[in-house]
Amino acid sequence: MKPDGLILIHGGALGDFVLTLHLLQGLLNEFDCPARVVCRRSYHCLLAAVPQVEAIDLDGPVARRLFGEQADAALHEIAAELNGPLVVVDCLGTNLRSHRETGDRLLRIDPRDQSSENHILQQWAKQLATQGLTVSHARPTWLRQTPIHGDEKRHVIIHPGSGGNAKCWPLDRVCELIDRIQRDGWRVSVTLGPVELESWQADTLRRLEQSTSLITFVQLDQFVEFLQTVQFFVGNDSGPSHLANALGCHTLVIFQATNPNIWAPPGAQCAAPAYDGLPPSVDAVFNAWTDMTRACNTSST
């Protein structure tokens, strides 16, 4: 039975949420129905361009009740004006109960890596398949870049941070990479977000300023607007790298503490240096960067 509404509940970090948008696109392709997405308010800007999707604040008074005894009543409020059967995809472990007598389907996803082999989107699809729903993920069509013109085509953005220190490539290697890319004729800017601005030492920030220009963002919507004018992006396994890739940037992701076979942003525009559990060398990252830019130049000619 085709549902009259879709509800997706998510509470994870930015990178996980961007990956979930690929799942959301697959669900919208499958059902073509109105949807509600319960997520952090700061992520609502990533859904603003989707006419059939309404974003609900995860920390709002209604959504908070999803984790208590009134979870089912809260879902009823969230689903207001969705009069028919629903598909509810719970990625957060709420207190919702299944109500098959109404035709609703409650499907649960554990967003953590379960296999250490398959890409995480394949793992999520398998979890849904075991609950009776077959769906394929797809690139979110509403996340689009503006055309890149002129000198901006030789401009690369480097984001050296991540939500976890273990994912951050060593700073001395970042600075050496910046120097090598600049000597190759590129303009380089480093972007920093709230995590880096709040937690990094002042001498770290000064060292980056000595290497190149810094661009800082506090609000996610401002960062999204900026990324829509960026063609090339280099970063760690982090939310900004996933977001840049989803927006269509040619994205080089540096992996060391996590496995790109599981966590790499999906799509052909992501390149990851060889993964062996250790920080890759500057040569390895620079060679991956060169391969990516050459491939982009070849495909555009």
Description:
A 6-stranded parallel β-sheet has the order 8-7-6-9-10-11, sandwiched between helices. The chain is of the alpha/beta class and 301 residues long. Helix content is 36%, strand content 17%. It has 2 domains: 126 residues, Rossmann fold; 151 residues, Glycogen Phosphorylase B (Rossmann fold, 3-Layer(aba) Sandwich). It is elongated and about 65 Å long.
> Quick one: biggest sheet?
6 strands, parallel
Query: What's the Cα radius of gyration?
Result: 20 Å
Count structural domains: 2
Tell me, what is the CATH class of the largest domain? Alpha Beta
Distance between the termini: 47 Å
Rough shape?
A: elongated
Number of strands: 11
By CATH, the architecture of the largest domain is named 3-Layer(aba) Sandwich
The CATH superfamily of the largest domain is identified as Glycogen Phosphorylase B
Strand content: 15-25%
